[in-house]
Amino acid sequence: MVVKINITVIGTGYVGLVTGTCFSDLGNRVYCVDIDENKINALKKGIIPIYEPDLEKLVVKNYEKENIIFTTELEISLTNSNICFICVGTPASDDGEADLTAVFEIAKNIGKLMNHDMIVVTKSTVPVGTGDKIKSIISKELKDRGVEYGFEVVSNPEFLKEGTAVKDSMRPDRVIIGSDNDKAIAILKELYAPYVKNHERFIIMDIKSAEMSKYASNAMLATRISFMNEIANICEKTGADVNQVRLGVGSDARIGYSFLYAGCGYGGSCFPKDVKALIKTGENVGYTPKILKEVERINQNQKYVIINKIKKHFGDDLTGLKFAVWGLSFKPGTDDMREAPSIVIINEILKAGGSVKTYDPKSMELSKTILPKDNVEYVSKRDQVLDNCDALILVTEWNEFKSPDFNKIAKTLKSPVIFDGRNQYDDEVLSKFGIKYYRIGR
Ligand code: UGA
């Protein structure tokens, strides 16, 4: 394949590494830059810092083909490229506002180091107005250097999901390009074209609307989840069943079925942080986003729904009781533990005097660094967790937990009871096995 476009991607986290790798797989030459030398050295050896299906083999393949260059040298990378993607993290500060330190530092370095015209693309999730700030930072640096290179700042938010990141990048629902510069728009379209066969999927808009679209999308999805969790909580008190309600509601073509699953709360690095940052954006301009504040509050409370059910069943004091926990990551398909409901549930069990035995297909090593060491035992097989436990809690709906051997569960648990935080099982089936079954929203 002929090398097409030379690209710099700054930041080798979820977004940067996946984006860079997918562009390189099209035959482009991609400089993946990170300040973390250890991470860059590991990547050169094919060691991927995150678990993401298909990513490792694509990285190794394209590194061997020299389509990807892993480096800490921003200057060399910029010299060799005409387009540069900013893909660094924008974590929540203490007050919820997105911390843009890394983004602005990079903008400064781009201004200091660029030695020809450049398209600077923001893929990091940044509050509305950040593109303008990046523009002024780069302009100031160029002015201080007394040079006059042309540059365009474009917003190109990323919508990939953890667990399906490669697939999402190679088959995006849409590619938003926030820019008013025809040349920059044309280059980005050319770059994405092989992955966007249906060109209606390109959406061109102004830079601020592009920045806002990202937050609005995540906030909308988080709102749907908190909304259904609220409906679930009302269902529990009225005798309705949220599983049935989901079907009744989702069948309306205007609503649709996705992201209407009640559960033990959303987690991950994005929804919690982006909802908080959008609240802050509103407050900064004198507007209080009331719905979003409730979305966030409902989600915090939802992480306690399972523990409340456990205490209702066993009593507040869980001393002497051992709980089997299936799943630790914030959702299936990833080892990411950020804001995972499992952290709250396990800590609450320990606080009430209980102990935990757990298994997760991907995130046990990471969990050992996050969860308390005492009274948390890790085992390497799904059914091994059940031995000597009083109850089973399903926290993350990995495929291997979806149709377990209920006979074995009924025989192994001391008092067969399942607390299901993801509504995976059938009430009637479980009652046939003599298993007491608690789930969300019924
Ligand atoms: C989310 C968005 O879905 C992506 O489009 C976006 O690009 C990404 O954030 C980001 O901003 O980078 P992600 O955090 O990987 O992606 O996870 P999701 O698949 O969206 O799930 C988020 C949480 O919602 C999980 O904890 C999941 O268990 C929960 N969830 C999801 C529910 O509780 N109910 C549902 O019906 C769906």
TrEMBL record:
It comes from the Archaea. SUPFAM superfamilies: 6-phosphogluconate dehydrogenase C-terminal domain-like (SSF48179), NAD(P)-binding Rossmann-fold domains (SSF51735), UDP-glucose/GDP-mannose dehydrogenase C-terminal domain (SSF52413). It catalyses: UDP-alpha-D-glucose + 2 NAD(+) + H2O = UDP-alpha-D-glucuronate + 2 NADH + 3 H(+). Gene3D superfamilies: Cytochrome c1, transmembrane anchor, C-terminal, NAD(P)-binding Rossmann-like Domain. Its EC number is 1.1.1.22. It holds the Pfam family UDPG_MGDP_dh_N. InterPro entries: 6-PGluconate_DH-like_C_sf, NAD(P)-bd_dom_sf, UDP-Glc/GDP-Man, UDP-Glc/GDP-Man_DH_C, UDP-Glc/GDP-Man_DH_C_sf, UDP-Glc/GDP-Man_DH_dimer, UDP-Glc/GDP-Man_DH_N, UDPglc_DH_bac. GO terms for biological process: polysaccharide biosynthetic process; UDP-glucuronate biosynthetic process. Pathway: Nucleotide-sugar biosynthesis; UDP-alpha-D-glucuronate biosynthesis; UDP-alpha-D-glucuronate from UDP-alpha-D-glucose: step 1/1. NAD(+) binds at D34, K39, T90, T125, E162, K273, R338. Substrate binds at F159, L160, K161, E162, K214, F259, L260, Y261, A262, G263, G267, K331. The keyword NAD applies. Keywords: NAD, Oxidoreductase. Coiled coil: none annotated. PANTHER family: UDP-GLUCOSE 6-DEHYDROGENASE TUAD. This is UDP-glucose 6-dehydrogenase. It comes from Methanobrevibacter filiformis. The lineage of its organism: Archaea, Methanobacteriati, Methanobacteriota, Methanomada group, Methanobacteria. The gene is tuaD.
